[in-house]
Amino acid sequence: MHELIQALLKQAPVITDGAWGTQLQARGLPVGVPPDPWNLERPEQVAEVARGYVEAGSRIILTNTFGANRVLLERHGLAARVAAINSAGARLSVEAAAGSARVFASVGPTGKMVAMGEIDADELRACFAEQVEALAAGGVDGFVIETMSDVEEAVAAVSAAAATGLPVVASMSYGSGKSGDRTIMGITPEQAAEALLAAGADIVGANCGQGPDTMVPIVERLRAASGRPVWAKPNAGLPRIVDGAAVYDQTPQVFAEGARALVDAGAGFIGGCCGTGPAFIRALVSMRS
Ligand SMILES: [Zn+2]
User: Fold this and answer.
1) What is the CA(15)–ligand 1 centre distance, in A?
2) Where is average pLDDT lowest: 151-155, 230-234, 285-289?
3) 243: pLDDT confidence band, cut at 50, 70 and 90?
4) Above 90 in pLDDT, residue 40?
5) pLDDT digits (tens, 9 = 90+) for 92-107
């Protein structure tokens, strides 16, 4: 395990951050518009989200780069800006962290599947290499490969990130299948842990897809399969759909109680995904103390 991960875990559970997309929408990002270009167009709004988490007590914040890969950006005519959007995203979070939090860069899926013949493995690897190299140049402390459902894609991202020499967290989204214990591509926690650690991940985890309570058995299984503390970022419960938009009703207090069960199940890093914000991080900080 990378020495930075080991050092952070000496004060486990390590509180990470919450959702970014909804925080940017609250600052004027239209729903359906990709948030990543705001690193160049509206940097002050992005910096505000990052500072909000640092002030709430996050010891690790992420970056506004979840969808900043070439495959997704070229759909918006931004293929030439991949490096600029990622390095700006890295710098904004590093400046906001100001030495009081670590910055782990967010890397999400491309939306293209090798298994469906939509992209080949070499292209996928090159796409992630381009993104992680720009993030590393921007000064991040590590990477979080997150919200993955296809293990082949996650492995491509992990191996590209590990090649930088920085620590790598590999997190997939579970909640599908009969027992709710698979990704939408049918991958189990055990299959993910084995493949992601072999690809160079320092630790594995789960994010999105489910609330804290249903994530408990997933974290237990990831802990057992990896033999390492787990990264966990559940949603604020299950959403209601109102006028086509997901609405999360779980309060920060209820969320933090659920998070305590995740820590007991083996989570060494804990934060929130969809439906969470700085108030949820403050609740986690109080839960911890
Ligand atoms: Zn989410």
Assistant:
1) 17
2) 285-289
3) confident
4) yes
5) 999 999 999 999 999 9
Q: What is the rounded distance in angstroms from the CA atom of residue 88 to the CA atom of residue 38?
A: 9
Whether the CB-CB separation of 39 and 65 falls below 8 Å is answered with: yes
- Residue 245 three-state SS: strand
Is residue 263 within 8 A of residue 220, CB to CB? The reply is no
97 lies in which domain range? 3-288
Count Cβ atoms below 10 Å from residue 178 Cβ, excluding itself.
6
User: What SS3 state is found at 2?
Assistant: coil
Backbone angles phi, psi at 61, to 5 degrees: -115, 155
Arithmetic mean of pLDDT over the chain = 96
Indicate which CATH number applies to the domain containing 155.
3.20.20.330
Kindly give the distance from the C-alpha atom of residue 139 to the centroid of ligand 1, in angstroms, as a whole number. 25
- How many structural domains does the chain have? 1
For the chain, first and last CA: distance in Å?
26
Distance (angstroms) between ligand 1 centre and the Cα of 148 equals 11
Q: Are 150 and 185 in contact (CB under 8 A)?
A: yes
Is the full-model pTM beyond 0.90? yes
